User: What shape does this take?
Amino acid sequence: MQRRHLLQSAAALAVPLLGVHASVHAQSFPTRAIKLVIAFPAGGPTDITMRVLADNASKILGQPVIVENKPGAGGTLPALQLQSAAADGYTVGQIPLGVFRLPYTTKINWDPVKDISYVLNVTGYAFGVVVPTDSPLKTWADFVAWAKANPGKLSYGSTGTMTSPHLTMELIAQKLGLDLLHVPYKGSADLMQSIMGNNIMAAADSTGFAPQVQAGKLRVLNTWGAERLAKFPDAPTLKELGIDIVQNSPFGIGAPKGTSPEVVKRLHDAFKQAMEQDNYKTALARYDMVPIYMNSAAYTRFAQETFMREKALVEKLGLAKPV
Assistant: This one.
């Protein structure tokens, strides 16, 4: 009887002790380097801006935040890596919008909403369509006319199959009755190299194309925000062109499912402070991006809502996987 009583007492103590252990871990976190996995190659706008954010966060956390590039698969590889990473806060990943489309287009055994701990949203992309400066397609009207006269021959590149640039271009094509030739790349750096080499006729991208436009090598035919971009005041928005689409593709940082709330809060607070620093805002401005902050709760709600909205888009474009 006494032995049973002692075992019950030990069991009763175990639960609070687990809580104490988690709390102590959170207070001491981090004690080593944190890995931030991003979805696009080195040298593009995501890589450049996220490295500034990581460096800022390193100083706040007192440990290195090391960027690891995992390009390909439509920007979904960091989220996939979170599925096998330890839920201890030492591996976090960028969550581009394409992650929320994944279950509708590919067979996966995890849920983008339930199987990620959402830390915070940090920014979003500004998008547009560009062509080489010497292209005969001087305006968006030229682009549409050439595409209609040459079905299936106007080649455009994007940062990958099922990414926001790809799906938005397919939606534009559907609305205008165009048949375009899509060429996917792993990220902005590869895409810009290809269009500069005249391997494709146009590129749909985030404003990673800004340096080439400012150097006079590319021309912007349109942009996809609610308003014209200050850097490209002559480029009309899709809405101005009569296409009722606004796309800015917010993205943020997630951790593995089961990461303790205390560690998520520590990461959230550090990256929020990192976002607020002038050097990060300056890095974003280079690509007409701005900080777009959502806390952990708001970012989780955004994930839930986006998951449902992207289902409707994928189905509308006829790209859903067979049941």
In short: The chain has eleven helices and eleven strands. The longest strand covers residues 116-124. The mean pLDDT is 92. The chain has two domains: 32-124+250-316, 127-223.
